[in-house]
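Pasting as-is:
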Amino acid sequence: MKSRLLQLPPLKVKPRKLKNIHTVAILAVLLTTCLTSAFGQTGVVRFKQSAVTVSEGIGVALIDLERTGADAGTQISFQTEAISAVEGVDYFPVSETYSFAGTETSVSIAVQIYDNTQKQGDRQFKLTLSNPVDLTIDTPSEVTITIADNDELTVPGFGAAGTNIFQGIYALGTNSTGSIIAGGVFRTFNGTLRKNLARVLPSGELDPSFTPGSGPDRQVWALAVQPDDHILISGDFQNIDVIPRNRIARLTDTGTVDASFNPGTGADNQVSSIELQSNGQILIAGQFANYNGTPRSDVALLNSSGTLDLSFNAVTPDSFFGSTARRQGDHFLVGGFVYGTGANVTNSLMRFDSAGNRDTGFQVSVGDIFYNQVYDILVLPDQKILICGNFLGVNGMNSSGIARLNSNGSFDSSFDVGTGADDTVLHMQRQTDGKILVAGVFTTFDGQPRSSIARLNENGSLDTSFDPGAGADDFVYDALPLADGGTLAGGAFDSFDGYDRFRLAELDANGALRTNPISISSYQLEAGQNLRLNLKVEPGRRFRILSAPTLAGWNPIITNSTARSSYEAVLPASSDHDFFRIEQAFDTP
């Protein structure tokens, strides 16, 4: 039996600067940086900031800690302390001791922030350093964290919030009514408990008619919506609403487990890919070795009832770990990565016939032994094959992150991506006009800034008319074309193009984030001639109110930002200005 690798999340990327995280009760990722000591030979430890404000919907607050000094000590403790926030309700309490690695000078502490639907104002707690070992605590020795409430009286917060840095939306789909199904790793959506799976109305509000109970108990990596609006999901879960379902399940359109789909004991490891077949069967791929007790390595074909189609039995090499599978005519393409003893990059993309026999005439050499992962496959109408992933070339030809093959597996040089993606491409979607949306962890495409999402023309060139601005501040896992020409992006990001967007963002046909323009929702002239303005604003984005005695010479009198979509301002009676103007997304004067 082949050994299995556990990927969490299913991501194997080239080194790049990602979030700088330290485990606090849940996870550990370390980032080392060489800094010149400003304090001589004595080790010094301190926070980089004395105050941090985060939105309630962020899920995890990251607090930067630095150690300096050539002879710096190795150990420091830190703990949270409530001010107006309530531990266990507003945030997860922390009391930890951390040991620095020899050359490590910078680390981030991750504290869980809980989202809810209650309008309760901003709350605070603090994080304090103590008990240094061979270190001197410098100022700031404590940091005050303000949780900015993102709820309105009638409208809850927005987006998906989790409990660790692996939180994110990993799979998106739409049903016949245009509602969005989102799967991934999260605890709440719009402040309401929706563990790892939610359905969202086209307006962005949580769909109250979709009630999956306690939901999947672990990650959802892939989903597919059937014509009857039933939803297939797969991942690394073992139960859905306490009903046993190992790594694959089908839900009704109301979110309950569909008992007519019975996978038995299911898959024995993660299932990261689902493709519905035209005959109702289901093609799955992942890192499993058995399905319902029957050996099936990395890929399997299921009947519509969830039982195994015994006529298809593809055997993958022991060094192969599956990510995705797609049908190509009468064949099945299986992609993943190779690692360990016997690893051969010609096994990162394989083709099998309808019985599961490998097509030995289909030989594709993906990347090299270090970067050879195929994350996603698209079979085009002409049966050509698009692959994306973590590679620098295919069949000896340069094509970083994405490549097109002819139907027989030979490299298609007419699809030219230039220098391609500077990092991993995780997912692709083809629009009805033939253009290709790509999502991942890259920062540029063909030398042009494109943070984690881009669109390509049919010939592989970058579609420069699709400009997402600053893009996502973390990876985008899925990009879903919408019926109106827009795009829905899901991933691990907290902001998109500088606006608060927690794991989900809607873009227009040109890639620009769809935002709500700042406006005055109401105003009232009060006794004493105070003017009370209620503004609709973009959460997390700076706005300002300017005044002038005439329609010239504008001066800002209020500059602010809020985690909510509304803001109330009172302009005092002492003001002698006759005109007011509101702006958002303005240039700094």
